[in-house]
Every structure is written in C-alpha cells, then in structure tokens.
Write a structure and sequence with these properties.
- It is a single chain.
- By secondary structure, the protein is of the alpha/beta class.
- Helix content is 50%, strand content 12%.
- It is built from 18 helices and ten strands.
- The strands form two sheets. An eight-stranded mixed β-sheet has the order 3-2-1-4-7-5-8-10.
- β1, α2 and β2 form a beta-alpha-beta unit.
- The longest helix is centred in the C-terminal third of the chain and has 20 residues.
Length: 425
C-alpha cells in the first residue's frame, strides 16, 4: 500500500469497483448527529439532482462510531423530489456509508472521503458539516460549480454568522492567517468546502493524518495548504450558517488548542512562504451576498472575565517566561478594572498571539503547555470584544473585525523580526 493511503472497508471497495469512476463526491463527516444529518443529506441529494443532473455523483457519510443511529438516518433518508419540482431531473446519485479509521476526529473522516474521491477519480468534491440546519441545495452548487466551471481548486465558505458565533475564527484564525498568507479568506475554518479532485489527492500525500490535523485542525490545514501551495482559491457566499453553536465562554479549549497548534505548526512548514508577504488581498467571491436573520447566542460575560482573571493569576510565572514585561503589567492591571471598563486593545492582543507563536517556535516548553495557557487570554479578548460591540450591528462588527485584521498585518514585522532573531545570532 502506498504511503499515507488507508485501507477502505471491503464493502466500500466493492461499491467503488461497481461504480468505477464518478464526477462528484460530497462528503458528510458525522458523530452522533442523528437529529440533524437527515436535513443535510436531503439538501445534498436535492442539490446534486437539481444542479448536476447529468453528473455521476456519490454521497459519502464518513462516521466516527455513532451510537444514535446516524448512519441509519443517512441510509434511509430520501428526498421527495415532487415537493421540490425535480421529478423530471433526478440525477445519477449513489451513497457510500462507512465508519472511518484512525484518530477520532473530523480530519480522519475527511481522509476517508478524500480516499474515496481519489479512487473514483472525481472532478470535484465537497464536504459539509452534519449539524447544519441552514444548508440548502444551493450550497452544493456554490461549492462545486467554481471547481467544475471556473477551474478553482479550493472553495472556502463565506457565510453570515451571529456576531458572537465563531469567536476563534474572528479573534485569531482569520486575522492571523490573513496576515501570514495575504489572502482574505473570511471563514478559513468554516467547515464546508469545495475542492478539486486534484487537491483532494494532494492532501492525501501529506504526512499529517496522525497529528492534530486529524481532529479539529483539519479545516485550517486544508485552507493553508491550498494557499501556500498556490492552488487556485476562491470563496462562495452560502447565506447564514446556523448549526449547533456554543456560547463563547463554554469549554472551547480543546478546539482552540487543536486549531491554534495547527496554525503554529503550519507557520513552521511554510515560513519561506509567509515571511515576505505584506498586506492582504481579497479572493474572488461567488454567490449573491445578502443580509440574513440569525439566531441569538447566549454570552456569559462574567464567566469569561473570571476565567481570564484566574488564568492570569495562576499562570503569570509561566507567561513571564515569554511575554514582554509591558504585556505582563497590562495583564496584571486590566483584570482589576470593573467589567464595563475591561478592554484588551487590538495591538495588545496581536502582541500576545505573536509572542505565543514565537514561544512555540523557540520551543521554550512543550507546545501543548504553551497553547493551552492561551485559553484564559483568549476569553479575555472575546469578553473585551463583546463589551465593545454589544450594541453594534452585524455590519459594524464586521468593520470592527477588519480593524483587528489590519492590526495583525501591521504587527507582522514584529513577528518576522523576532522569528529570525535566534537564527541570526
């Protein structure tokens, strides 16, 4: 077996042999999503039938061992084509439903989907989350069409989210990847992507499938790998993203840890790419952009500030080993302020994040230890952002995030200079 390939189950291999080749694969990773995955399957089926009726398409459910009947729901779900006026245009659609192997996580699920896409020699592939409640058949067209008709290799999602949904994206991942690689991909870890068969095959050649990429880190790894290796990238406006969001102060530490460690690991791999990039540029955007109503998200501001204060108190000795003295003074004093005056300015946050990246680069202690200690400071920045934007509209919040992105871009020379300090000494 070639390196990095995985063995597919016998029944899956038999199904692939029966199909021979296909044009499109749409993958749905899942783990105990019986309540929501039926809607996603119907949207995928309807989208493929409506927009690609002449294509040979395969829906792949890659499951992580669900015990709630998720795979049965996928197997039994069908679309009432009459109700969506498609009875004359039903396409050539097949299903493959299989557990995946490897480290439990979304990345391992994607690996199985990509392996099936590669074996079927597809032209285009898309992956969509299994907890989506806002997916429509049009999402499938928007993720696939730029690949088939315009020659793009990677289609990132662009959707409207509640202003306090996606706080890891908004405060760290989007501004930092934009500053590093110069592409304004608004949702680099959005979860729903389109890609060419060529890119799916390229992903399989990379030796990452036993790392954090196999867990939550897969989304940022896919986006960064596509950009850094000069694949043709765009984004597609999908409307609202309504899924099962978490309150920003809830336990997102595992996701934060795995996403941030993936960002920092990719900085090591692609330093020759990002070190000379200055500023950023928009990427082509497909779809008709419009305003949408979004479900509110509960925010426990007091809990976030309490966790920030406790973290700074308990971890200050560790922070002192890699954060500059003026940052330590700031962290020690901001926590004493009343809630309404609690604020972490953008330039301070940029300096914190860049110094965490530098600490990992210099291997001052274990990467896991460093990145886990970022959680209370991240919660502090989110709390500060919430206080500042509580009365703001969605458009005003987006403008505020643009200012944060510019702060990351302006602060990049600080990062580059210190990244190479040790090597030049």
């Amino acid at each position: 077996m070639p390196e990095n390939t995985i063995a597919l189950r016998k029944d899956v291999q038999e199904k692939i042999n029966e199909l021979g080749e296909a044009d499109i694969v749409v993958g749905i990773p899942s783990y105990n999503n019986a309540k929501t995955i039926g809607h996603v399957v119907r949207a995928v089926q309807a989208g493929l039938s409506k927009y690609f009726p002449d294509a040979k398409s395969v829906l792949v459910n890659s499951d992580g061992g669900s015990t709630d009947g998720t795979m049965d729901v996928v197997r039994e779900t069908t679309v009432d084509f009459d109700s969506i006026l498609l009875h004359h245009r039903v396409g050539n659609l097949h299903k493959i439903i299989t557990p995946y192997h490897g480290i439990p996580g979304k990345g391992s699920a994607f690996r199985t989907i990509f392996e099936i896409a590669k074996t079927l020699n597809v032209k285009a592939c898309a992956v969509v989350d299994s907890d989506l409640r806002s997916i429509t058949p049009e999402w499938i067209e928007l993720l696939i069409r730029p690949v088939l008709n315009a020659g793009y290799d990677y289609v990132a999602p662009y959707y409207h989210r509640h202003k306090y949904d996606g706080t890891i994206t908004n405060t760290i991942v989007y501004p930092m990847t934009r500053a590093l690689y110069g592409h304004r991909i608004r949702q680099p870890i959005g979860g729903d992507f389109g890609l060419s068969g060529k890119l799916a095959t390229f992903y399989l050649t990379k030796n990452v499938w036993e790392t954090d990429v196999a867990r939550f880190g897969i989304d940022i790894w896919m986006t960064t790998t596509a950009v850094a290796n000069s694949f043709k990238v765009c984004q597609a406006f999908l409307g609202a993203k309504i899924h099962d969001p978490k309150e920003p102060g809830s336990d997102l530490s595992a996701m934060l840890h795995q996403v941030v460690i993936s960002v920092f690991n990719l900085m090591e791999e692609y330093v020759t790419i990002w070190k000379d990039i200055k500023g950023s540029k928009p990427v082509p955007t497909f779809g008709f952009v419009y305003s949408v109503g979004l479900e509110p998200i509960k925010v426990n501001l007091d809990a976030m500030i309490d966790k920030f204060r406790l973290g700074v108190k308990e971890l200050s000795v560790m922070y002192e080993s890699f954060l500059p003295g003026e940052l330590m003074w700031f962290l020690a004093t901001v926590g004493d302020k009343p809630k309404e005056k609690f604020s972490i300015p953008d330039n301070v946050w940029v300096e914190i994040v860049y110094n965490f990246a530098l600490a990992c680069h210099r291997k001052l202690m274990s990467r896991e230890h460093i990145i886990k200690s970022l959680t209370p400071l991240y919660l502090g920045k989110v709390a500060s952002f919430v206080i500042e934007t509580w009365e703001s509209t969605a458009a005003e919040v987006e403008q505020r995030l643009e200012e944060l992105c510019i702060a990351f871009e302006k602060g990049k020379p600080y990062l580059v200079e210190r990244w190479f300090e040790e090597e030049e000494e």
